[in-house]
Known about the structure:
Layout lengths: L3 E2 L1 E4 L3 H11 L5 E5 L12 E3 H4 L10 E5 L1 E6 L2 E7 L5 E4 L1 H14 L3 E4 L3 E5 L5 E5 L2 E5 L2 E3 L6 H6 L5 E13 L11 E6 L5 E7 L4 E7 L8 H10 L6 E15 L10 E3 L15 H21 L6 H26 L1 H24 L4 H8 L2 H8 L8
Parallel strand pairs: 1-12, 2-3, 2-13, 3-9, 6-15, 13-19
Antiparallel strand pairs: 4-8, 5-8, 6-7, 10-11, 11-12, 14-17, 14-18, 15-16, 16-17
Helix pairs in contact: 1-3, 1-6, 6-7, 7-9
Amino acid sequence: MPRLYDAIIVGAGPAGALLGWLLATSGLNVLILEKQRLPRYKPCGGGLTRRALDLLPFDPAPVVEDLARRAVILLDGRPVFETLEREPVITLVMRDRFDHFLARRAEGAGATLKDGLAFRGLSGSFGRLEVATSAGTFHGRLIVGADGASSPTARALGLWSARRVFSALEAEVDFDRPETLDRFRGAVHFDFGLPPQGYAWLFPKAGHVSMGVLTRCMALKNLRPWFQAYLQTKGLDRETTVRSLRPHLIPWGSGSGGRLADDRGLLIGDAAGLTDPITGEGLYFAFREARLAAGVIREALDRGGAYLRRYEGLMRREFRIELAWARALAFLLYRMPGLRRRAFDIHGPGLGRRLLDVFAGRTSYRNLALRVLHPASLKALASPRSRRTI
Length: 390
């Protein structure tokens, strides 16, 4: 008889790997499938916020590249906020090493990890699913799609819906002079306004920096000129080597009617289509979704496949209100450049501080939005002499 897994997880990224660890430590038989050989490069800034780190049940120190205690926010090339904190604002990792680290932790907890094989299809019903791959068929009681923004698993489950996405271009930048890196160690840069309807970022790593540009304007088909402009803005267009320059899409919401679960399985990570609508941060959401999914899966294995549908309700309660406020702020930030400029002119330090508080889990986008969109704040934005702070 072929082995029957309690759960088959397609995708060994952070969401799938953490879910595998959570389920395996509960004593379940878990199979994690990954189409690429691990470790594999992943275009990503590799920034772990405090709120994301707080959801990890183990210390990622073995794969940490740098600790950013300084944060700089710029608008149209000019600094509007800068801070130096005692605790790291963002912990920096390379996603190939970080994802591999998480996958190995899941494997160490008892999950079976099979990389280098691709998902091909799905048949059967809850309790007796057949998962076809490029290396044969595996059997499981339920399936989890953790296989990215284009998720073949979501399509096989009939859960696919159009995604609203950021378009991003990211690369690793090496320096001909090692001392150049000293300018950027321990600091993260967020440059809003470049490109239009987006921002650029610079995150330091152990021996280089990760840089990228991101936009929600899908009319911008080619981000290379904006990436080159960002290099010039940072004085890095000479004596540097740009490698692994790759485009990628970051989902920040599903279309209307998007579903996340049925009687056979559910979606997490980018497959679920949720990231921060302002920054594109996905790791925090991946870890929260993995924890929600783990509880639902454990119950469903006892109560039946219909219980998996409770996952959608939990996701709505967990994220809907907060993301609605975040999207309202994102609209102001990316679609209303005049108001954005006024907001940073008047509230720059307060906005920067509260944005970092969101990253740290000390406040919410709802609280930030209520301050920015409060009638007194909106009146201040309309007054040329106002210098109120939030």
